[in-house]
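To whoever picks this up:

The parser on our side crashed when reading a file containing two proteins. I've narrowed it down to the boundary between the first structure block and the second sequence. Both blocks are reproduced below exactly, byte for byte. First block:
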Amino acid sequence: MVLELSQQQMNLLNANLAESIEELHDEVLHTDEREMRQELKAKLQQLQALKRQVAAQLQGHQPAL
């Protein structure tokens, strides 16, 4: 499935991903249970990969200076 997002929506998505990544990173650091920490790390890696994709899309839509 492909979503068409406006520049404003992409910026909002990028900001939300950054915030979610930061919060999830804190959860990973403060989780004592090893198995849960591994699951959280996997989710964190997925969010980081998605954020990289969104950032690449944003760079592609930026007008040249």
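<<boundary where parser fails>>
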Amino acid sequence: MGYAKVLSVGLAGVAGHLVEVEADLAPGLPAVIISGLPDTALHEARDRVRAAIVNSGQKWPNRRITLNLLPATLPKYGSAFDLAIALAVLAGSGELPPVALDATVVLGELGLDGAVRPVRGTLPMVAAAARAGHTRVVVPAGNAAEAAVIPGVRVHAVDTLHRLVAHVRDGIPLLAPPAHVPADGPAGPDLVDVAGQPLGRRALEIAAAGGHHLALFGPPGAGKTMLAERLPSILPALGDEAALEVTALHSIAGLLPPGGGLLRRPPFQAPHHTATVPALVGGGSGLARPGAVSLAHRGVLFLDEAPEFGKGALEALRQPLESGRVRVARTRGATEYPARTQLVLAANPCPCAKPSGDVDCECAPLARRRYLGRLSGPLLDRVDVQVQLKAVRAAELLSTDSAHESSATVAARVVAARHAAADRWAATGHRVNADVPGPYLRRPPWHLPARVTRDLRHRLDTGSLSARGYDRVLRLAWTIADLDGRDRPGRDDVAEAVQLRTGEVA
């Protein structure tokens, strides 16, 4: 009888869990049995591993092989255990010295020819190994760059099972991860390209400075999409912790660029209006994959032509926008993903969307109300900034004046405003105004004098503003004050915040 154990990592959402891959080889009718709640891809590993071992020049043991993945109560998904299974089988049969694999975490999918292929979720899996105290990991060569960003971990890359067997048996060195990790891709579009729309530019800057959700309403060609696409260009670069979270989510979804390192630029997700609820919030059979709202974590989720989205898909966003997390429940367990994103909605005023607006609109008033009514009150109540854009005039579109500010200029003011907010709320653990709970703003020392909030309190008493809306106006007022360099909001700041919140024109 032969026994061997190799360490690997399984994923449950973005959380990794150390998994012990045990192999027991006993006399009897040749067979391979896998236990430990494996999914279909893992059940098929026996065929992939057998072919990979034989095609790598090793002998397959004709014995009864029992593979167990501990803890047995944790569901196991995917093909990342292939390489660990192969090593456990070879060590259990005596082909490899088991002691050489102690305290080493092994990840990788095997091809039938013995090639080691990249797997999704390598970064969070390596991070989980590091938290468990294991500092030596073996990963596919295609995942070496993302694994190397975890501090304190020695990463060894491997491209074939044959190379790994030679390393374990004879000490031949494995591949080293790339020394230079490529940066993010080319910069996105610049705010200087937007013609006119001073209100839209102001709203975009305030949304970026305070982390507020934004809704843009206006006729086609007004610049709604252009403004939304340029929001990431004025957001601050991601810090180390945020970059790790974002990169881990993209790694799980299989969207991380090959050979890429940490994603430092805030992500931008713009799903088509035919997107389903699972596409937006996450789902799928087995292990639920992150949806667009999680892939936009620490960045921007843009819903263009928002009224065209399904009602169920839009309403499913309400809870993630409030809590900053998505919890997807399935029969085999629940998966949780972070979803702290900035939502940007864009909508035409009516179904016909004639460029000249009310003049040539063919829609009846009821049709116009029904169209925008697809954006429910509870959803819009969570959107801090709601502005009505007017059509761009010829003088604005054809102007050769280069006075428009670039994204870099606006981003500098946004960074300064965010630093002011982070210093003010440091004791609460919040970094942007949009995240500060309402009670903090309504109690000393942060409550505003009655003369400053008089109009705001009147709107609350008359029902034109909800309690949630009241708090969101206060947050907007603090952001406006931060952008303008004031330590507290004044009456004018609150008035501008009300206009941005309600879409009213001063």
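After patching the parser it read the second block fine. DSSP finds 21 helices and 16 strands in the chain. Residues 407-424 form the longest helix (18 residues).
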